[in-house]
Design brief:
Blueprint: H1 108-120, E1 123-127, E2 133-141, E3 151-154, E4 159-164, E5 173-177, E6 184-185, H2 188-194, H3 204-215, E7 229-238, E8 241-250, E9 253-265, E10 270-279, E11 289-290, E12 295-311
Antiparallel strand pairs: 1-4, 1-12, 2-3, 2-12, 3-6, 4-5, 5-7, 7-8, 8-9, 9-10, 10-12, 11-12
């Protein structure tokens, strides 16, 4: 004899980010009310998860961030977040030249490193957010995962440089910088394009709540850790395939992993694409859960990137 299942009201489930009953969980588990993170040269990506609708930190203002630290951190140390520069509006790229050199989000030591690389030979590129894609996927989990839904975070604004040696790919590197507060959470068109378990649209209140809780102290604590960096240097390979060492720095910790890449590079353009995954717990971030884990955020987060760059003929500012 089996017991009849006890019905659970979706709108009464508390969010792991928000104590209010009926607040839609996020970072992979927003309840659907209708149904239900090295050395000088590196590749910097932002990885983050969301929160939920309800109370949270105030939305980002247009004020300047602090200036970045004057020195490049060692591979095993988390990058300094002190004093990030202000983020000016990105200029629209032309079809045949590198985009306007807005490199304000790269620390001075990084720009100095690329000036040295530029003088040594090889080819320098400026990575272009308008021609690139960077997506972060967070998944619902737990026995009641069907009551939640997945999230997509998009980075549409960053500063970036890349360098390739004159021959081969070994030692090629890149750096990209952007702010947590510039994330776009669950753009409707991107959710629809991804489809499947990401297809359902989210209401604006839930989307803003996700961003607010992502930035809060209970989330990724943007006040203390405004940037998340991943540094990469190609270790081996020949176009179109390569393997790079990635040092992901987020929430004040750094861990390394090797990531396979697809690379297309010549004197006219650069393209790099790949996928990586990381566990939030490795960085001291506890995946949120409610009802003893019945409804939860999966510890694993997936990042897909396709970065494009054009030659930078001018000197690095």
């Amino acid at each position: 004899m089996t017991a009849n299942p006890v019905p659970v009201r979706v709108d009464a489930l508390p969010s792991p980010y928000c104590p209010q009953a009926g607040c839609a969980p996020a970072a992979g588990i927003h309840a659907d009310r209708r149904r239900h993170r090295r050395s000088a040269g590196g590749l910097v990506l932002l990885l983050a998860l969301g929160g939920c609708a309800g109370t949270g930190v105030p939305p980002a203002s247009d004020g300047a961030t602090p200036d970045m630290a004057a020195s490049r951190p060692p591979a095993v140390a988390a990058p300094s977040r002190a004093g990030l520069p202000a983020m000016p509006a990105a200029a629209a790229p032309s079809a045949n030249t590198s985009p306007a050199a807005d490199l304000s989000l790269l620390r001075p030591a990084i720009r100095t490193h690329y000036r040295e690389l530029q003088a040594s030979g090889g080819q320098l590129y400026q990575l272009d957010p308008a021609r690139s894609e960077l997506r972060i996927y967070a998944f619902r989990a737990g026995l009641a995962a069907r009551l939640g839904h997945n999230h997509i975070l998009a980075v549409q604004r960053f500063s970036g440089l890349a360098w390739a040696p004159a021959k081969g790919l070994r030692g090629a590197s890149a750096d990209v910088g952007f702010r947590l507060r510039e994330l776009q959470v669950d753009p409707p068109a991107l959710r629809a394009e991804t489809g499947g378990g990401f297809a359902s649209p989210l209401d604006p209140e839930a989307v803003q709540g996700t961003l607010d809780h992502l930035l809060s102290e209970q989330g990724f604590d943007a006040a203390s850790h405004p940037w998340i960096e991943v540094s990469a240097t190609v270790e081996t390979g020949e176009a179109p395939l390569a393997v790079a060492d990635f040092a992901l720095s987020l929430h004040g910790e750094t861990h390394h992993q090797r990531v396979p890449l697809r690379v297309q590079v010549d004197e006219r353009h650069l393209e790099v694409s790949g996928t990586l995954a990381f566990r939030q717990g490795d960085y001291g971030i506890k995946p949120y859960a409610v009802m003893g884990g019945l409804l939860a955020v999966d510890d694993l987060v997936v990042v897909e990137f396709h970065l494009r760059g054009l030659p930078l003929a001018a000197a690095v500012p």
